[in-house]
Amino acid sequence: MLAAFVVRAASPAQAGKPSPFHEQVNEEVPVARRKVLRQLVFSFLIVLAACGGSTGSTAATTESFPVTLTTAKGKVTIPHRPTHIVSLSATATEDLFAVGAGSQVVAVDSYSTYPTEAPRTNLSGFTPNIEAIGSYQPDLVIVSDDTNGIVGQLAKLQVPALVEPPAADLHGVYAQINQIAQATGHSAQAALVVSGIQQKVQSILRPVTRPSKPRSVYHELDQTYYSATSRTFIGQMYKLLGLQNVADRAPGSSDYPQLSAEYIISTNPDLIVLADTVCCGQSLDTVRSRPGWSAIKAVETGAVVPVKDEIASQWGPRIVLFLQAVADALKKLLAAT
């Protein structure tokens, strides 16, 4: 349950702003990395345990329908409890199964690799095709963006669409989980999921010591040095841990700036988090081999944290896995200084 975030562009932008890494699938992943996301096999399923077991479990319906919800695209009415849900968002797919709506899902997009029982197809959240979506006879479609006017196209078929854009912070994560649960009839289960995440976040943050001089972090999205500032969801995770983000001082106004090797070296970060381990094979060894990088404090001390690309690119319940990995590295760093 550790995830975080948004598709960026050649100057990744925040939700709703056009950019080459346009966020069409709730991932915080540059275009070059979209092709290489693979199934996460991760044994640390903290939040699932906290939320009461299997992602495929079903819970009793707790809503009466029709239900009207306010989304990023305005109000949407869901006339009855949906039984043919199509998810074109990897984070929404995770949320659906977490709240117990897995049995109502008939198809998910090609990047929805978690949980394994999700009915993965070749549907695309980047270029949604109304005919392909319609072939599953959906009574609810969940997307992270109104790409190609898909919401209006679905409306013509009288299919409600729930738009759940990238969350800005943990409150946004909780709100989306609750809204997806309302839309599918599982509000009671959502309360357990949210409570589980909140408890885990608190348990992660509680033992983290705040040093008098904050430590700095560089978050790497890919090998061309795209990063994420504190204005992004992933950046908010670093703020929770009291870390200073070196991308915040980068020239320009992008929330997802492309930094230079020279700039990163000059900031001399205490911690480096690699969110390009799967796509691009990055590790402490590959970072150390980059010209000039061996002199960076994080590299000298081994404070380079490899995380699964998928875990660092979505903001569903598994976000706690990302937070835990960074917190552990920070505690180790502080203990050694």
Give a quick set of tags describing it.
33% helix, 13 helices, four-stranded parallel beta sheet, Rossmann fold, 337 residues, alpha/beta
CATH class wording of the domain at 59-200? Alpha Beta
Kindly report the name of the CATH homologous superfamily of the domain at 59-200. Nitrogenase molybdenum iron protein domain
Q: Assign an overall shape.
A: elongated
Strand content: 5-15%
Distance between the termini: 30 Å
Proper CATH architecture of the domain at 59-200: 3-Layer(aba) Sandwich
Low-confidence stretches: 1-60
**Count of helices?**
13
What gyration radius follows from the Cα positions, in whole Å? 20 Å
Largest sheet: 4 strands, parallel
Give the oligomeric state.
single chain
Q: Please count the beta strands (DSSP E, at least 2 residues each).
A: 10
Strand order of the largest sheet: 4-3-5-6
CATH fold naming of the domain at 59-200: Rossmann fold
Helix content: 25-40%
Mean pLDDT: 85
Q: Which structural class should the secondary elements be placed in? A: alpha/beta
Order of helices and strands: HHEEEHEHEHEHHEHEHEHHHEH
How would you describe what is shown here?
This protein is an alpha/beta fold. It has a domain at 59-200: Nitrogenase molybdenum iron protein domain (Rossmann fold), CATH 3.40.50. The chain has helices spanning 31-34, 46-50, 90-98, 130-134, 150-156, 170-184, 187-205, 233-240, 261-267, 277-280, 284-288, 297-301, 319-335, and strands at residues 67-71, 74-78, 85-87, 105-108, 140-143, 161-163, 216-220, 244-245, 271-274, 304-306. The chain has a 4-stranded parallel sheet, sandwiched between helices. Strand 5, helix 5 and strand 6 form a beta-alpha-beta unit. Helix 6 packs antiparallel against helix 7 and helix 7 packs parallel to helix 13 (319-335). The model is unreliable at 1-60 (pLDDT under 50).
